[in-house]
## 1
Amino acid sequence: MNKIVNNAKEAIAGITNNMTLMLGGFGLCGIPENSITALVESDVTGLTCISNNAGVDDFGLGLLLQKHQIKKMISSYVGENKEFERQLLSGELEVELNPQGTLAERIRAGGAGIPAFYVPAGYGTEVAEGKETREYNGKMHLLEHSLVADFAIVKAWKGDAYGNLVYRETANNFNNMMASAGKITIAEVEEIVPVGTLNPNEVHTPGIFVQRVFKGENLEKRIEFVTEKQ
Amino acid sequence: MNKIVNNAKEAIAGITNNMTLMLGGFGLCGIPENSITALVESDVTGLTCISNNAGVDDFGLGLLLQKHQIKKMISSYVGENKEFERQLLSGELEVELNPQGTLAERIRAGGAGIPAFYVPAGYGTEVAEGKETREYNGKMHLLEHSLVADFAIVKAWKGDAYGNLVYRETANNFNNMMASAGKITIAEVEEIVPVGTLNPNEVHTPGIFVQRVFKGENLEKRIEFVTEKQ
Amino acid sequence: MALDKNGIAKRIAQELQDGYYVNLGIGIPTLVANYIPEGVDVILQSENGLLGIGPFPDKGKADADLINAGKQTVTAIPGAAFFDSATSFAMIRGGHVDLTVLGAFEITDKGDISSWKIPGKMVKGMGGAMDLVASAKNIIVATTHTDRAGNSKLLKECTLPLTGVQCVKKVVTDLAVIDITENGFKLIERAPGVSVEEIVAKTEGRLIVEGEIPEMNI
Amino acid sequence: MALDKNGIAKRIAQELQDGYYVNLGIGIPTLVANYIPEGVDVILQSENGLLGIGPFPDKGKADADLINAGKQTVTAIPGAAFFDSATSFAMIRGGHVDLTVLGAFEITDKGDISSWKIPGKMVKGMGGAMDLVASAKNIIVATTHTDRAGNSKLLKECTLPLTGVQCVKKVVTDLAVIDITENGFKLIERAPGVSVEEIVAKTEGRLIVEGEIPEMNI
């Protein structure tokens, strides 16, 4: 069983126009950089992208936005991106905003075969429009539905040929759930390690969820706001 | 912040008659041995126990069954226990059997503030009796509800004073979810390690879910079926 | 001649494909692991929280923390992963397991299965069986064709409490390989030396027999 | 005199209790971490997957993989834990976080809050705010009492899109500490040198003023 492919271009093979993609990361932390570059170069278009954020103007998903490759975003927070705001206000881009925890849970549910579930977040707000509601424990809840993707593209720290993944610090964020919710899941990793070297107690994403693994090259790992002790 | 208590007796303080408990473990693997012994000695009765299994006649939850301390069990598999079967058939013991994955998810949902969710398991069977059904993706699903407990009692390998826990091999099983679903969660650990020694990338149960930690003494770790190479 | 348990397991093992993730139930299904064909790389999932079940441990090496879903001590292969039960059933419910093999008391020509309860007699519980049958993409049942009294286990309707409805895709018995189609059971192969007539006689549900039925190649 | 941002943060820090798990929002709430009282041990949760936020890193030590929910580089305290976003919001939605402090554009005397969207002007998204306000056991809002134009932010009804309904328990502004009760806002404390009359004048929602209102002790 060897899921390793040579590079991002090979990894994204099969991604075609109008597909739904999940892309891991929180802000610019834990995003699959090489995969995004390969998508930009592929000229694939009409994408629906499920991603907590939309990158910044010149990095991350912002690069796909600039080339108008994205038709719709499903996200929780899309600040820090002027081009995004422009496309949204002009109607070029469709945007579905979700409460962040609801977004995370919808993705987990997609991977776990749970089509729908109730959460309190968003009750009484515009997020609730058109949604079924029900009271549990004296509190109103919304019925939310799972999300799956044609391809999920995640970024991990270490990975092996079986697809087992380990994340580093807060670069896990949405990656672990998204890995489970792609019909095909691509893992861009900083380091490929030999099968058997990851401690099986410490694997974050078991390989069953992952179909392709490749080593990301020249990762910039850009920091959005460098804050240091005064 | 120091959640360490001296022993099982201190750990179970506050458990009173007719409470609902969750107890981790799969078969006899990963069960909180000292805690069960302390419960037997406490003479607490009328308990509802949520546990995947019910132990064997002379170990694990079987010890509580023998003393008739359990009123109701919520489990998925209760074989390997004659006293259990006797009490069930005689009507002394109430039993709610759940599909194992549904049980696991109900507990996770309890810890995660999700009051209800849909699953396909059990549709068309006696498990579906009285439950709402709905079709998703061409398949019928049941609406299942979350489980929470007055006390969750879990067994971990290592734990620290903040309540961070790490499990070993398949002794994780139901422990991780249950830790999140107790109003008070007690962790019986094989080893207490100083705060800061667990790698924060490798913590299975973050301390926020755990209220009390103690070191289990003289753990037997009995094996139900020793199977070895011929 | 009717196959023994190992023969059933050996035939089922031929259904394994390279790269499959497989969940093997307790009993005959467990034996399938002994017959994985050369060059076919599969990873075994255990619903108590292990991906990558290895062989039984060497003498004296049994580890109380490392068991399979049948509560037997096992080992983990290099590249294995451990996880909690919620994650394990996320794999199962989410359709990530390619093939599930499990035993049964009864199967119907619609793919219904009874496997967990004999009212008034056996109350062990369903364990993970209901989750597995409700969600597996591909389910093979391993069973004897008849019970000890000689009654068919391949029925029109289950008489025992159901584990799942319309889910089984294939049945491998001591006598035959049978697919479950829209029109009922369909005989695919027969055990070496077993006649089509015997299989027909011992199958109570609708059974389609079309053309020459080859013997299993095991 | 009206408090500055640090004053508001300092007053909110007095609400922290030993052993609390606390989620601090972006802006003034983040400053609360600088004023945790001596002897009060709290652990800060960051919804992007960190329990145990530490101080900002030393010069040159910023780590791209270690950020807070405001995307600032941070450190992790000894005893911290990292996890994915689903687990993070399990903590939040499951009621495991003891106190949430966040900013707001508007708050009503029923505890409704608007904090995420100014139609036609700002479309950044709600991030984790809706999850936090819907599930936190205890929510304190940190805000200025009025907007830059001098309009009250403590209203009868929100004019901006809601983040959550009937969820805020306490508001700490540059002028006052106000509880939200069944009968509306209730004045608890006033900033040093600020008169009750000024607070009344700048509060549009129902405001209960009972007896002598003490000055904050900060």
## 2
Amino acid sequence: MADLHFLANPARFRRFSQRVLPGLTFATVLGFAVGLYLALLQSPPDYQQGETVRIMFVHVPSAWLSMAGYALLAALGASLLVWRHPLAALMARAAAPVGACFALVCLATGSLWGRPMWGAYWVWDARLTSMLLLFFLYLGHIALSRAYDDPDRGDRAAAILALVGVINLPIIKFSVDWWNTLHQPASLMRLDAPAIHPAILMPLLWMAGSFLLLFILLVLVRTETEIDRRRLEIADQNA
Amino acid sequence: MTGFLALLSRDLRLVWRRPGDVAVVLAFFVVATVLFPLGIGPQANILARIAAGVLWCTALFASMLSLDRLFAADYEDGSLDLLLLAPWPLELAALAKCAAHWIVTGLPLAALAPLLGVAFGLPPDALMALAATLLIGTPTLSLIGGLAASLTLGARRGGALLALLALPLCVPTLIFGAAAIETLMTGEDLLAHIAILAALALVALATTPWAMAAALRQAGE
Amino acid sequence: MTGFLALLSRDLRLVWRRPGDVAVVLAFFVVATVLFPLGIGPQANILARIAAGVLWCTALFASMLSLDRLFAADYEDGSLDLLLLAPWPLELAALAKCAAHWIVTGLPLAALAPLLGVAFGLPPDALMALAATLLIGTPTLSLIGGLAASLTLGARRGGALLALLALPLCVPTLIFGAAAIETLMTGEDLLAHIAILAALALVALATTPWAMAAALRQAGE
Amino acid sequence: MAPPLLDVPLLNVADLACRRGGRPVFDRLSFALGAGELLALTGRNGSGKTTLLRALVLLVRPQAGTIVWQGSNVQDDPETWRGQLAWLGHLDGLKGDLTVRENLLGAERLRGRPAADDRLDLALVAFDLNALAHRAVRTLSAGQRRRTALARVMLTQAPVWLLDEPLNALDSAAQQAFRSVLQQHLAHGGLAIAATHADLGVPNARTLELTA
Amino acid sequence: MAPPLLDVPLLNVADLACRRGGRPVFDRLSFALGAGELLALTGRNGSGKTTLLRALVLLVRPQAGTIVWQGSNVQDDPETWRGQLAWLGHLDGLKGDLTVRENLLGAERLRGRPAADDRLDLALVAFDLNALAHRAVRTLSAGQRRRTALARVMLTQAPVWLLDEPLNALDSAAQQAFRSVLQQHLAHGGLAIAATHADLGVPNARTLELTA
Ligand code: HEM
Ligand SMILES: Nc1ncnc2c1ncn2[C@@H]1O[C@H](COP(=O)(O)OP(=O)(O)OP(=O)(O)O)[C@@H](O)[C@H]1O
Ligand SMILES: Nc1ncnc2c1ncn2[C@@H]1O[C@H](COP(=O)(O)OP(=O)(O)OP(=O)(O)O)[C@@H](O)[C@H]1O
Ligand SMILES: [Mg+2]
Ligand SMILES: [Mg+2]
């Protein structure tokens, strides 16, 4: 017998997501079409960085979203631990790899960008380093939630970790910034925010919006998959 | 409070019966640290420059190494049930276990580090600073590691997973601990660093016991 | 020999079913390595100097973390008795466990290390040398770590002392491994170092299985 | 411990339901237990005896149902409830590196109070552990360990005993010793719930048979 | 396995003496066992049943005495002797992370031979483990684990079974299942030595009572 109590909530979620998914997909595609047009064709190459500046249109939105993603994990963790919201566990399970991927994209585009800019794929810049640590926090979350035979235990352990992690994130960021200023690597170009030209800001915001839509889309689809998987497992056990 | 002291003294007594576990951890600390001068060669200036960082990193590893079994032994022989059923807050029990861990690893590590610092050619005031920062920083490592140990209780691949969870969270302590020794060369204020380390320890003390207790209750299921 | 392969394949299949377990060890290796720049500072020239030492040290640590429970789990759940009673030499069983451990940690560590070397700014030929030395040196770590694990099993003070002695046995491997990368800068012969590492591995292979078997038999009493 | 009200059940369990690993183990389980009563849990392997015991002490979160002790729901104040409990699980919960005496004293101190020496001696005598008091538990035989764990239960003086297969590994003399300790506990107005496959030898014990 | 010589004892134990932790446990213990015979070891907790079993399989080094199997001293050729043994200790010796099936198959391969599927199925059926075959052992109840360990013993087809309290944690149905498996083993000319506090239900079993 399938566990009806458990599925009641996710079933409602599924009805909801079935309704919004088509529109969301359409909006995401449209957003990227416009955003990529603006970013790749419309905006001028940077006078200093040349065409490579276009990496930024992928790099910066993924950085933002990976940070937002961890905050989402913490919120989901809280709602699992406090309100025992069963959907929160599934959604956290779905969201963590997506956030980790965005962090990875940020790291990868950053180091590709770093090669022409700094002549090295990696330098120990503060922002780079704290993004790397955020990526590790994601890895820990993913590994922990999958380290148990009983998925519920993995979910709750990971929820606790996400809450502790989110308290720590600002502390980590602060200490890494401070560490970097302590050891000023004089020969390297600093990754200071350039005064962003409006001609670049516009496409950047479009891309950021499209990335946000993509993030939501991926999390919703993956949550559905998680629901299916959990349902199969339960059916398996009751068989 | 009686419960806290009882648990603390029981754990210390257990270690006393089995000193090898602590000895292996300290040996790891020494071996890993000695590796650097041997690998890098005897340039005194480079060695002194990296000494604090190396000692802090290896101390961090050493304390992770022994945290693996912090709750696992109790879990496997059924004593964790007794802790969970004790009529006083589980938060205190978690704290007592971390305190015992600190006494048998953090404390000897802090005592041993200046000795190793000599091998790196650190000046006397740096040796003092090293011991002081380790003394104040290692409780944070024990607490964060204890949290990771409680979260991974009953999970597969305990040890490595534990370290993967704990190490990123230990970064602030590591940075300020290692940097404190450099202040002696740059002429900055050592006390400010020690104050930050103490603040980090207090934050850990205020937050991790709750999380540990929550994680341990999960494990009892 | 069937028993050897059975034990090896059981341990490997267990891992294969859960590739996440290996991933965790590797992730831990990466995290631990990244901590050193945070402790020491980001100066590229210094980092390149200590890269080999750092990577060898974290490789040792990764081995230790996962070896800790190599036999202890079997001891505590009673499976060690079954191994002791299997109708084929216990030396082979010990070897099989170490081999499985090396395949799932040493091998991937050696493969991953060059990637991390890039972040430390190592030149391409140093990256190759790093992978080669780790490939040849990590079996020794698995064997000696396995010996320490078997000695501390059920151990009283004597076993602890022996384990303490076993750990420094890793020192030659670490030194020659870490120094091998330096030869590229000093123009010395890399192959000589690799030959020494291989010799150390053979010595470990020839001696540790007997010692492990003896220690395990003790533990079974 | 409050004066036992002999006519009112002290422990009231209503409609308890538990799941393990996604499967329901039992459902709508109800019973009440008064002072001096023993409830023997029986049933096939895997029928849920251990799960029920763990749910009663809140080690396993029940899916539904209430556990009421002396009129108040134990989930509202778990700490007080824990103070009333003595627990013996499948595992003995002893530290192999400590002696029998140290284990017993340590367990009492963990419950927040030091054990008086005379009570300790009583428990040691009851389970014939005197000769072993200073031996490390790791060097004891299986039955000697189980006896130590039972002595720990006796030492708590808690009104509610929850025991998972207490007779495991005991020889007949030790089984007899346990029976008389248990009867004494009941005679003093204590409660006990024990999962067992054998007869506990208490004349008017109540039985709850779980079905898988 | 050699054809059983029904009239000559297959296993001859003479003058065995053992010490644990500096104390003598038993001294000058002798017995002989022929094909199809069961020896039940009884005695108080700590009387040395487990020690004797472990000494017979050479896990504990005997202080004195000889163990002779089919005419040759087992200490001269421990490996052959181990090939004849099936062992069940106080602990189940199962891996919690593996399923019941994987545990059984793995144990057989550790003995140096792969188990045929039909024999595995037989053992699973005998101990009513079919429904649990693909569950991780860590999620089983105590009795379900013990049944798995017993199925492992049955699977070995070894002529000599050494069992330490085999009935521990078993419900009555499982005890019955064990009894019939044991009788089958004996009927096929096997030997068994079992430490126990309960009756094993084998009609003409011999008993050796150890005294502490
Ligand atoms: C692996 C390498 C890199 C990583 C991990 C990385 C990480 C980040 C992160 C986390 C942000 C978001 C910061 C925020 O919004 O507060 C960011 C923004 C940015 N990055 Fe990178 N970065 C890398 C390489 C580079 C390179 C090589 C450049 C080009 C010189 C670059 C240029 C920028 C720019 C222009 C921004 C936007 C600045 C802002 O919004 O404040 N990044 N990067
Ligand atoms: N940790 C767990 N995860 C999943 N399922 C479990 C877990 N523990 C027990 N179970 C299952 O729950 C059911 C009840 O187990 P429980 O241990 O309560 O049985 P029991 O009545 O105590 O049996 P026994 O007589 O063998 O001790 C069994 O089917 C068991 O397989
Ligand atoms: N590892 C050990 N070190 C020292 N003494 C031991 C050890 N194991 C057992 N003993 C002692 O040896 C004696 C025999 O123990 P053994 O385990 O053989 O008893 P047993 O007959 O199996 O008892 P039980 O019925 O409780 O299982 C006991 O007095 C015990 O205390
Ligand atoms: Mg049970
Ligand atoms: Mg015994």
